[in-house]
Amino acid sequence: MTDTPSAKRQRLETHADDTGEIRSKYWFDDGNVVLQAEKTQFRVHRSMLAYHSNVFKDMFSLPQPEQPSEPCVDGCPVVEMSDKAGDVEYVISIFYENIRTNDMRALMSFEHLAAILRLGKKYEIDHLRDEGLRRLRREFPMTLKLWDEAIEKDMEISRSLFCCEDIINLAHELSIHTVLPAAYTLYSANYSSENMLDYESGRTQLNQRALKGCLIGREMLFRKAHEAFKEWLNHGLDFIIPGPSCTSPENCKASKFLALDHIPAMDFSDGQMDILFELKESFTRSICLKCRRSIIAAYDKVREELWQSLPTLFGLPNWEDLRDFDA
């Protein structure tokens, strides 16, 4: 055994050279290409990049001049990248360290999600792009059933509202359209029109196209829901309870307006947007279980109709026409 480190082992420290460039910890002595993002350089292996990225594979397959005109570092050609250094470092860490430092089963920060989506799309790293899209779609799905599941569970990206704004902007940047209806809905459910236009709040602001879509879509969804539930408001659930299988007709009939008060979507007084959120059997105890289930069935029918209309309300194509990555 010897204490001399392997020539192939990456250097663990990050330091700057005389030119001001910073050498990342991913600096392999036997690397044969240097990637530079911002001021940070990564000495890595062409074979590794080509294995994961179709863009690098095509780049390195081109004939290389015997006397390169491009700058070199330690005899390695330099590939300058317009990406953030942190994004490049994270993706390289996935290539070289995999589950040692990156557990793809764990929660992922927005910054790391954005990195694998941006670089995955740009450099045709298909498995990273697809992983990022899978995570996004789990939180912002295309069906009402999956929406209910996403709201119910702790999903893979932080559901904090500042993150929702970042997600919407990222989806526009990368043309990830399938997640926009659900993302718009979640955003609109938590902010009034006045809040959306509050530029002094310190929050990330939506890009102008997204902001316009949310403002118009929120109002249209509000009106459509009010119209859909008009009969409920006017007739106090007479058309639902007491139902044929009701176990307590007199009590349920007497308590129908009380039950209505426990349905969040019925309260239009403050412009709230609880319209699409799931109604549980425990929403009230004032009526029998059979009647509660009848209400939920009718309520879910309206929710499904509203869900199907979401894309067009927010100025997007129909669900079946939404595409990702300009496909």
Key traits:
Potassium Channel Kv1.1, Chain A, elongated, alpha/beta, about 325 residues, 6 strands, six-stranded mixed sheet, about 10% strand, 14 helices, disordered N terminus, about 50% helix, 3 domains
Outline the fold blueprint.
Blueprint: E1 15-16, E2 22-27, E3 33-37, E4 40-44, H1 46-52, H2 54-61, E5 72-73, E6 76-81, H3 85-97, H4 110-122, H5 126-139, H6 144-152, H7 161-174, H8 180-190, H9 193-196, H10 208-228, H11 230-235, H12 249-254, H13 256-261, H14 289-313
Parallel strand pairs: 2-4, 3-6
Antiparallel strand pairs: 1-2, 3-4, 5-6
Helix pairs in contact: 1-2, 3-4, 4-5, 4-7, 7-8, 8-10, 10-14
Protein model, in words:
- Helices cover 48% and strands 8% of the residues.
- It has 327 residues and is of the alpha/beta class.
- It has 3 domains: 15-61 and 70-102, Potassium Channel Kv1.1, Chain A (2-Layer Sandwich); 134-219, no CATH class; 224-313, no CATH class.
- The chain has a 6-stranded mixed beta sheet with strand order 1-2-4-3-6-5.
- A hairpin with a 2-residue loop joins strand 3 (33-37) and strand 4 (40-44).
- It is elongated and about 90 Å long.
- Residues 31-98 form the BTB domain.
- Pfam families: BTB (PF00651).
- This is BTB domain-containing protein.
- InterPro entries: BTB/POZ_dom, SKP1/BTB/POZ_sf.
